[in-house]
Amino acid sequence: MAESASFTPAEERAVREAYAAQGSADCPRCAVRMRERSIGGGSFGLGYARKREWLLCPQCHRSVLFDLKRGTRN
Ligand SMILES: [Zn+2]
């Protein structure tokens, strides 16, 4: 079923790299700009919010979810 469709690991990596490099990414299958959503962790009350980004292709509905690590700056 199409519902469980997902990117291959190589495609997912390409999306992550594009997003890291330019702040946006295109779907490797549809060549359309993927929508981004930020998912905050604050509502879980963990004390430390890890920012997550969710990229969703509006055409094929494949998505890539990844964590943005914020610990690189001192
Ligand atoms: Zn797509």
What attributes characterize this protein structure?
single chain, 74 residues, alpha+beta, three-stranded antiparallel sheet, 1 helix, globular, binds zinc ion
Report on the architecture of this protein.
This protein has 74 residues and is α+β, with helices and mostly antiparallel strands. Helix content is 19%, strand content 23%. The protein has one helix at 9-22, and strands spanning 35-39, 51-56, 63-68. A three-stranded antiparallel beta sheet has the order 1-2-3, with helices on one face. The radius of gyration is 14 Å and the shape is globular. The termini are far apart. The model has no long low-confidence stretch (mean pLDDT 80). The structure holds zinc ion. Residues 27, 29-30, 57, 59-60, 62 line the site of zinc ion.
Summarize the structure.
The protein has 74 residues and is α+β, with helices and mostly antiparallel strands. 19% of the residues lie in helices and 23% in strands. Strands 1-2-3 form a three-stranded antiparallel sheet, covered by helices on one side.
Order of helices and strands: HEEE
Show unreliable segments.
none
In whole angstroms, how far apart are the ends? 46 Å
Structural class by sheet pairing and helices = alpha+beta
Beta percentage is: 15-25%
What is the helical fraction, as a range of percent? 10-25%
Helical stretch tally: 1
Form type: globular
pLDDT averaged residue by residue: 80
Q: How many separate domains make up the residues?
A: 1
Question: What is the strand and helix layout of this fold?
Answer:
Blueprint: H1 9-22, E1 35-39, E2 51-56, E3 63-68
Antiparallel strand pairs: 1-2, 2-3
The structure holds zinc ion.
Zinc ion binds next to loops.
